[in-house]
C-alpha cells in the first residue's frame, strides 16, 4: 500500500513539474513583431559547396537531396529503410453510409516485424454518386475514428483505448465532427481516408512501445541517437503506408492523393510530402513551429518551447537550436520547397498567434523560387493576403478568422485548391 501511495505522489509531482514547464514556456512567448530578431534565411537555391542552383536538374540532383539529409539529421530524424510487413483485414463495409451518399469501410492494418506486431484501423469513405476513380484526402484524426461521426458501428482505434482513461470526454462519438465535414467532402466527389494518429505513434509519454517505431530492428526507446526518428517521422511514415493501401483500391485514383494535416499533423504532413512524391497535393493547416512557420522569427511557439513541451516529436539533434534559432543551417521554407513541383497549401488562423501566421506565410513565400524553377507559380508578394481571401497558385495560402482549428471554411478552400490542381469535376 505504501509503495502505491509513494508512486501516486511521484506521478502527481511529475505532472505538476510538467505543467510548470509548459506554463513557463507559455509565459516566455513573444507576440510582439517589434521583438522578432533580425535574421537571415539560408539560401534555398545555393548548394552546400556554394554552387548556385539554376535548373530543375541541379535542384533534384544536388540541392533537394542535401535538404532531405539536413531535415533527417537535424529535425525529424532518419526514416528507417527497413521493410515492415503489413497485412489488411476489411472489418466492415457499409454501402449506405451518410444516408446512402457513401460507402464506408474499416480496415485493420497489422504491422509485424521481429516477432512483434501493432495494429491500426483505417476509416475510409468513398462517394457513391461519382463515376470512375475518385481523388482522396488522407489525414490523421486526433481523437479516434469514432470522433468523426455518431455512427455506432465505427470501431474505437486500438491505441485510443490505451491512451484515454474511461470517462474521458474524448470517448464520446462525434466529439470532433466539426473538423471532418464528411457530407461536404463526399458531396464534392472526394474520398476520405483517416486513422487515429495514436495508432501509429501514441502521443503520450511512455507509450512509444505500442507504436510502429518499436517494430524496427535495433529499436530502443532510450537509445538517444541524435538522428533517431520520433513521432513526426513515424506519423509521416504511417501516412505513406495508408497510400500503399489506397493504391490497391479500385475506386481510388492513386494519382490524386492529397494529404491534409492540422497542427502537429500539419508538421507531419509536410515531412511526409517532402519524402513521398505520391502525395500529389500537400496541405498544412496551422502547423506552426517545426511545421510551416519560420523558426528564425522566434515568434509564438519557438524551437525551445516545442521541443520541451513535446520532446517526443523531433529527433534530439533539434534540441541544439533551443534559444539558438539563428544557428539553424536550415529553415522551414526549405521543407515546403521539397514538395515542389507538386501543389502545396499552407493555412493559418488569425487568432492562432502561437503558430505564427505571418511566419507560415513567409515560409511559403520563400519556398516559391523552387516552383519558379519548374515553371510553376508560387506566392508573388511578401504581404499576407486579406483575411479569408485565399491564394490558389501552385503554392496556396489563406488566413481565416478564428482560432487554432479546422473549419468548414478551411475545407472549402482545400477542396477548391484540389479541384483546380486535380482538374476535378463531378
TrEMBL record:
GO MF annotation, one: carboxylic ester hydrolase activity
Signal peptide per UniProt: 1-27
Keyword Signal: yes
Protein origin, superkingdom: Bacteria
Domain 4-O-methyl-glucuronoyl methylesterase-like: 227-375
Cited InterPro entries: AB_hydrolase_fold, GCE-like_dom
Hydrolase in keyword set: yes
Keyword terms: Hydrolase, Serine esterase, Signal
Entry protein name: 4-O-methyl-glucuronoyl methylesterase-like domain-containing protein
Organism of this sequence: Niabella drilacis (strain DSM 25811 / CCM 8410 / CCUG 62505 / LMG 26954 / E90)
